[in-house]
Design goal:
disordered C terminus; alpha/beta; 8-stranded mixed sheet; about 400 residues; FAD/NAD(P)-binding domain; single chain; disordered N terminus; D-Amino Acid Oxidase, Chain A, domain 2
Length: about 400
């Protein structure tokens, strides 16, 4: 397989081997890992390190995020979770910045008999899938986390579901990219450049043209809206709104919670993620409202109401921030990774609720495909072409 060297049979050497459109954690890790392989990389984004990571909780929840029908995605999630400690150590050394990674475990609890029955079924499913999780009685849950409500009926402890701080992670990736020689173009992209049926770069909002041998579209929920991308290869991603809160745990309260706590309250998923710096993240709503990122009184109320039912003392904590972001959802809740039917164009998007968790494995997979043309085995089920079998057949 030919490794791109930035040259072209149609003219002089192009400025970049790879242009990454989108500077969130997925775009940045792709750029960093590819630069480590010796490729000349540029990232185009008006605010590198921004995006969904700024309003993500950072749960590395391969097991407690398991949903029925997502066994294939589970394999990718577990592979990425396994890489996180080594990935974190390498990134922190490369950037000189702390990412807030904590190997603290997660406990999922049930507040009533119906939730307890559902959690029992999920626990059985986890065990059947070969996952490591431990069933707890309500008393055992409260022994581990004394702030939990007296009415907690049972729970599941997953020692291997950890957390990181997405904001610190994004900042560290920006620094690591810069130190690795990645060029950051702080601008939006107006359109993809396509010449003779091949992606050749992009045009920025100010009219600047960036040329590249390969292009990676990693613009999160906006990946499906880029002008110039042929309709048949536009990624089927959509924005899914999520609101969350950040509280502050004063010194006398610490430790308020010692690990991430998850629950289903009134049919909605709730999580509380305690940081070592005294922050407590409470999330998150899931709303199909297009591009709306308004923080609503109703969203804040529902999160606080449900969190109070789970941990009554939470309403005594200072509320320091509210936020709303857009997750890039795909038809099967799994990412789109690798080459499209348009030569030169790759996708790294559609990570939905697992973007932070899948950061290590995504960087590894995209660097591999950009240098060898082949996705590693663990990423092959997530090729963008799974949504276009007719195109796949014609291009075979």
């Amino acid at each position: 397989m030919h490794v791109p060297d930035g040259s072209s049979s149609c003219g002089p050497r192009t400025p970049y081997d790879v242009l990454v459109i989108g500077g969130g954690v997925i775009g940045l890790v792709t750029a960093w890992r590819a630069a480590q392989r010796g490729l000349r990389i540029a990232v185009a984004d008006p605010s590198p390190g921004g995006g969904a990571a700024q309003v993500a909780a950072g749960m590395l929840a391969a097991v407690t995020e398991l949903h029925y029908g997502e066994e294939t995605l589970l394999g990718l999630n577990l592979a990425s979770a396994e890489r996180y400690p080594e990935f974190t150590a390498e990134l922190e050394e490369a950037s000189g910045q702390d990412t807030g990674y904590r190997a603290c475990g997660t406990i999922a609890v049930a507040l009533d008999s119906d939730d307890r029955a559902h959690l029992r079924e999920l626990h059985t499913f986890q065990l059947r899938t070969g996952l490591d999780s431990q069933w707890l009685t309500g008393r055992e849950c409260r022994s581990l986390e004394p702030m939990l409500a007296p009415g907690v009926r049972g729970g599941v402890l997953v020692a291997g579901d950890h957390q990181t701080d997405p904001r610190r992670l994004a900042a560290a990736l920006v620094t690591a990219c810069q130190r690795a020689g990645v060029v950051l173009h702080r601008s939006s992209v107006r359109r993809l450049s396509v010449v003779q049926g091949r992606a050749t770069g992009a045009v920025l909002e100010d009219g600047t043209e960036l040329a590249a041998e390969q292009v990676v579209l990693a613009a999160g929920s906006r990946s499906g809206r880029l002008a110039g991308v042929p309709d048949e290869v536009l990624p089927p991603v959509r924005p899914v709104k999520g609101q969350l809160l950040r509280l502050r745990i004063p010194g006398p309260y610490a430790p308020f919670l010692s690990r991430t706590v998850r629950a289903v309250v009134r049919g909605g998923h709730l999580y509380l993620v305690p940081r070592e710096n005294g922050e407590l993240v409470v999330g998150a709503t899931s709303e199909e409202l297009g591009w709306d990122t308004t923080v609503t009184a109703g969203g804040v109320y529902e999160l606080l109401r449900d969190a109070h039912e789970l941990v009554p003392g939470i309403t005594e904590l200072p509320l320091v921030e509210t936020g709303a972001g857009l997750r890039p959802g795909s038809p099967d809740n799994a990412p789109l990774l690798g080459p499209t039917a348009l030569p030169g164009l790759h996708l790294a998007t559609g990570h939905y609720r697992n973007g932070v968790l899948l950061t290590p494995i995504t960087g590894e997979a995209m660097a591999e495909v950009l240098t060898t043309g082949e996705l590693p085995d663990v990423a092959r089920p997530f090729s963008p072409r799974r949504f276009a079998p007719a195109l796949q057949e014609r291009s075979a």
